[in-house]
Design a protein that fits this description.
By secondary structure, the chain is an alpha/beta fold. The chain has a single domain, classed as Ferric Hydroxamate Uptake Protein, Chain A, domain 1, CATH 2.170.130. 23% of the residues lie in helices and 27% in strands. It has 2 helices and 8 strands. The strands form 2 sheets. It has a 5-stranded mixed sheet with strand order 1-3-2-8-7, covered by helices on one side. A 3-stranded antiparallel sheet has the order 4-5-6, covered by helices on one side.
């Protein structure tokens, strides 16, 4: 009887240690490890598991609003009324993360559909779809582009390493190479 009681006590102690360890691990995973959430910003903050810096990310498709006649009817529900899929959001990132890495993290954290493929010729990932809005959905030259601090780089998003304070905007262009994005 004493052996059974001792075994039960040991089992209860092991379960308590496992539960406590799980709670501590969950709390640590929810908090940035080497950076703290920025204060005093107008943007929303979204935890993505990053840690060395913060950037602001926005995903928009407002150009489609003036081109709805070109968009297949079944795609209309994926275009938000204001054309903003993700409002300006502060995102923690790790050293070496690229604009593409940050996009993947934020889409996963915000449960936004993302489809992409690797393009060996350009040694970069190509974004085919965000929020179920695919390239060519709004014309033969339509698709996703990105900007860093208001500038459109001439290389793939998986080549640009994000820096602390950067603003990354993913925007859907309806007219060849972002002419409608400004």
């Amino acid at each position: 009887m004493k052996k059974k009681h001792l075994a039960n006590m040991i089992m209860v102690a092991l379960i308590a240690v496992m539960v406590a360890g799980g709670v501590v691990t969950a709390l640590l995973l929810r908090q940035p490890t080497t950076a703290t959430q920025p204060q005093g910003t107008a943007a929303t903050y979204l935890e993505t598991g990053g840690g060395s810096g913060f950037c602001t990310v926005q995903i928009r498709c407002d150009t489609i609003l003036s081109n709805m006649d070109r968009l297949p009817a079944e795609k209309a529900p994926f275009v938000p009324a204001g054309g903003q899929i993700l409002a300006q959001t502060q995102v923690a990132f790790s050293e070496g993360d690229t604009a593409f890495d940050v996009l993947k993290k934020i889409c996963e954290a915000a449960d936004i559909q993302l489809e992409y493929s690797w393009t060996p010729l350009y040694d970069s990932y190509y974004v085919e779809s965000i929020n179920h809005l695919y390239e060519f959905d709004c014309g033969p030259e339509s698709g996703w582009m990105y900007q860093i601090n208001g500038q459109t780089p001439n290389y793939g998003s998986s080549s640009y390493e994000v820096r602390d304070g950067d603003t990354v905007v993913w925007a859907y262009s309806c007219d060849g190479q972002g002419k409608d994005l400004g």
